[in-house]
Structures are given as C-alpha cells and as structure tokens.
Amino acid sequence: MSQEILLEARELIKHKRIDEARKLLRTIPLDSTAQKWLAKLDEVAPEKSLTERVGEIEPLRKPKPIADVIYIEDTNRWEMFRQIGAYLSFLLAGFVLGLLVSNLELSVGDVSIGGCDSQMKNWWDDEAEAVIVEFLDTAETAGATSRGSLSPIVLELRGIQRDFERLDYPDCGQTERDLLNDGISFGVDGYNSFLGNQEFLADVQFEDATEKLTEAYDLLFDRGVFADIRLSNPDAYIW
C-alpha cells in the first residue's frame, strides 16, 4: 500500500503539485521514505503558514463617503506614480540579480557551480529515468520467474544495461551515473549467476547491486530528484 502511495506522490511532485503530494504522503506517517520526502519538500518548497495564507486574502473594505473620493483620487494618483517607480526599480534590481545568478552557472573545470542539480534533474527526466524504470520492471519480472525460463529475461537485462551505458550524462553527475551503472551490472550478474546454479555468488552480487543503487538513490534525492522508490531498496522491492 505504501509503495502505491509513494508512486502516486512522486507523480504529483513531478507535475509540481506539491501541496497534493504533501497531503498524500501524510497519510502514511509510519513510512520512513514518506517522512524523508516530506522533509525534502519542506526544504525545497516550504509550506505556507496559516498567517501567510490569510495574508493573501484581500480584506473587505468599507465604501468611502462620496465627499472624500475627489480628494482621495488626487492623492491616489501620486501614490500610483510612486508605486510604479518603485516597481520599475524592483524589476531592474531583479534583472541585475538574474545576471549575477546566471554567472554562477559558469563551469569551473568539470564542476558547474549552482547548476548541477538542475542538470541532473533534466538528465534524469529526459534520459535516465525511462531506462532505470525499464531495468527495475524487468528485474522484478526476473525475480518472479523460474530458473528454467530466466535466460531470455537475463538477455533483455543485458540489453538494458548497454542502453544505460550509452546515455550521455552531465560531467558533474558522474558519481551518480557510475553507481547506477555498477548497480545494474551487479544485478544482471546476480541473475546470470542464479541461472548458472551459483546461488551464493548471486546473493553476493545482489547485495552489491543493492548497495550501489541505494547510494545512487540517496545522492539523486539530495539533488531534488525523486527517483522510483524501488531504487531505494532493491533487496526489498526487486530481488
């Protein structure tokens, strides 16, 4: 049940429906992953307080006497000009700040300052996620398949491994990419060893795969990437 809720919450987060995701995650207070995700959401998209929400509501105003309106119109006109000037100054300051922030995206060596999290999110959404999900789906199928019928699935897993190896990736995300690649490789090797009746070796390889994939999941999460929950503990969800 928790896994289905986490998957649904993850889709909401991907579509920027943060409040809905937060509400859904709170329905499973005993799930450690849900609490971890809530903490991350509070970090990257803090929830508005009741005071802030009330402050956004336009208060009702009493109608002014007609005798006051003529005088107020002149006063408001000058106030309007003052506010326009302040707004233009604000826009100019924002433009200058934007230039400063964009400069932080410049690379120093192979490290992109301030921009790597964004690069990794784009890489995950545009390229890596589909391959990883395909691997997890196929590995889950392999885990429910008898030894005699496993051979074609292992070949399919090898093909997915090669697909992942061919993906381009941001230089600053090499650690995450290598962990994912090693985890996939160990997982495929584990099924191959199981296919060859080397069950002890298969167990060791599955443990190595779990360690690599879990570490990759944690690093991606720190960058604000909400990866497939199965990646957080393949030993529980997959093998």
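Above is the first protein from milestone M3; the second protein from the same milestone is given next.
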Amino acid sequence: MKWKHFIIINLLCMITVGYFSFEFGRMVQRQADVKEYFTTAQDEERFIIETINLVICESGNKHEGVWGDNGKAYGRFQFWKIGFDDLVKITGNEDLLLDWQNSTHQYFIYKQAYKKQLTSKYWSCFRPVDF
C-alpha cells in the first residue's frame, strides 16, 4: 500500500472514530479509578471469580445475539436497558455516551456497580465468593 493511501485511510478512521476514542479514553481513566478500589490481590481475585461466575450464569459468557428475560435483557451481563441506564446514573457516568448493548460498556458499568456494591441488587445470578 502506498503511504498516501495509508495516511488517508488512517485519517478517515481517526475522524470517524475520534469521538468514540475520546469516550473510550474517559472510560479507561474511570476503570483505572475503579482498579484502585481493590486494596489487595485477594479483592481483585474475588472480583474476577465473581464476574466469571456471573457471566457464565447469565449468558454462558456469550454476548452477541444473547437475549434473555423475554427479550428485555441483552448480552454477556444480561442488562435490561432500564437497569443499565439506572446504573449509569447511580455510578455518575451520565456524561459518557454508553450503549447498553455494547459489551465493553456493559463491563464498564458492571465494574462500576461492583465498586458500589450494587451487583446483588441488579443480577440474580450474582453470588459472593468467600475465601
């Protein structure tokens, strides 16, 4: 590929997804803030185990085309739109353009909800792990 074509394609991609990259950057920063929530390796391990158990129970760890609750819940975390929107507000992320059917956005909001200890209120499959 010629350099001119490479540069043009990259510029078009940057223009097309530039805004979304900005949003993603803000999400990454907030994820870093959540990571500070884990004070020990055991806390982080608990989060990982509880999350794996949850997504296996909710969706078999599949995202695309996985609808549940008579078509009201979607994706790996089986979010309902109303529940997702509620958690976006509760976790203080209204300023982000988040899509309730997007896998990355679902994980982002789940992790924020986990930090605020809201998981058992929104997911019937959530089971705390004791070490």
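Note on the second protein: Residues 24-122 form one domain.
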